Structures are given as structure tokens and as C-alpha cells.
Amino acid sequence: MWTFRRKILLGYGAGLFLIIVVLAGAMTLLLRLGRASESILRENYQSILAAENMIDAAERQDSATLLILLGYEQQGVSEFRGNEAPFLQWLGRAKDNITIPGEKEIIDNLEVKYTLYLKEVSDLLFLQRTDPPAAVNRYHEVILPLFRSILETCIKLRELNHETMYAASMRAGKQAVQAVFSILIIGGVSVLLVIVFSLFLSRLISRPVSELKEAALRLAQGSYDVQVPVRGSDELALLATQFNLMVEKLKQFHEMNIDRIIAEKRKSEAIISSVDDGLLVLDENLRITNLNPEATKIFGGIPEGCLGKHILEVMPEKKLFHFIRTTLASGQAPR
Length: 335
Description:
This protein has helices at about 5-70, 75-95, 105-130, 130-220, 235-275, 295-300, 310-315, 320-330; strands at about 280, 290. About 80% of the residues lie in helices and about 0% in strands. Its EC number is 2.7.13.3.
């Protein structure tokens, strides 16, 4: 049986389920955003950082080459070799982080160019010792264009990862907007459903209670034909059923009492009429409620229409009125 308590628990259980769904959806979307951000940092930022550091190392090596041409061979060679290892190290990191289409071709091309660059600088060092003018020409004709090509390739690698990171950032932004709208929609639907259920629940409770209240008021006014509609099989329906049974019993009791009262009244009237002495019946307000034929004769033919009237309206006898008041006040007959 669907009890009232079970209905309430079911309704609020559904609301709680919707809240859990909203929280789970929010957590899922946040995790997706977190993974997207992590992917941007892992896949693109490392390659951008590698390209920046290779550009820096290549520029330092070019400056070292110029030092060699200016005659500072030992200092130039030391600085050139000191930046060779960092360049190769960052090149290796870039090779290990290939995630974008076209990135492998750029890195392979960069590796070939840098290997050739190292060979040309090594040859330049030997040429500088034997023929400095020829070494300068060799630098301008071969090494400098090769250096610039290496820089352009590093910049190309950096820009490719920049564009990819920007696209990934835009996707993450769209996911964030979608997450916000999804949470708002699900949350709005949940709130709407909770409001609808609350209104339904309030009506479910208030309607039977209002009907019971109206029926109780009508019952208090003496209407014993009132009935409360019975809907369903929960506690409120059981209460309505019991109320209807109570009304039916009160109706039977009321009808039984009326019949008894009428019978008692008829019995009293018969007794009053059969008494040989004059008998006048008054209530606490000294209004005539009954009298027998002998009383009518004694008091000079009082009309029967005097029932319900004050005794002074019918018999303006002050002395008699005084005796009656004294008797009512003391409860004893006057002497």
C-alpha cells in the first residue's frame, strides 16, 4: 500500500536523486576541463618551451662563432660547446613530445639542419686557423643562412604548438561554457521539479485537511449528512473513512436522541394535561413553556398563544410575579 509517508519519501528521494545527478554532472565536467588543461600543458607547453630554449642556445652559439672569427678562439669554442648540449637536450625533449600532425617532420628537419650546422662550424674553426678571410666568407655564405634556417624551423615549431594550444584553449573554453549551461539547465529542471512536487505535496496534504475542516464545521452546525471524499489508501484516506463512520454514528445517535426527546416531551405534556390542579410551567427567564387546561381556567382563560411569552405579558399580576421570582430564587415555595 502506498502510504502517505512512502509518497513523501518517494518525492523527496526523486529530488535528492536529481541533486546527486547535478553534482555528478558538475564533477564530470570539471574533470573534463581539468584533463583538457592538463593536456594543453603536457602536449604543447613542453614543445613551446623546447623551441624557446633551442632558439636561445642557437643564438648563443652564433655569438660564439663570431667570437671565433674575431680571434677569441678559446672563449668562442668554450661558449659554443657549452650551448651544444642544452640544444641537443631540448631537441630530445621535443622529439619525445610529438603529439601534433606535422610536428615530427619539423623536428626531423631541425635535427638534420643542426647536425649540418655543427659540421660547418667545426670546419670553420679549422679554416679560421689557416685562412681567416676565407673563414669569414664561409660564415656569411653557409653558416649564417644555416643558422637563420635553424631559427626559422624552431620558430615554426613554436608557432605550431602555439596554434594548437590556442585551439585546445578554445575547446576548453567551449567545454566550460557547455558545463555551465548544462549545470544551469539540470539545476533549473531540478528546482522546477522540486517546486512542482512541493505544490503537489502541499495540495495532497491541504486538500483532505481542508475538506475535513469544512466537514467538521458543518457537523458542528448540526449537519449530519456531511461526507468527506475518500481518495486512495493512505493515512489521509483512512482518516476520511473514520470521519465518515463517526458522522454516521453521530447521526444515528442524534436521531435516537431526538426521538427520545420527543417521546419525553409528549410524556410530560400528557402528565401535565392529566393533572387535576392548575399547572403552569416557566423557564429560567420566566417565559411560559407549558400549561394545562386547569391552569387556563384558574387564570381566566389564558390563550394558548401565550407559550414562549413572559408571564407579565400574559398575567400582569405583580403579587403573583413576586411569588414566582421568590420561588425561583430560593428554590422553595413561598409561605
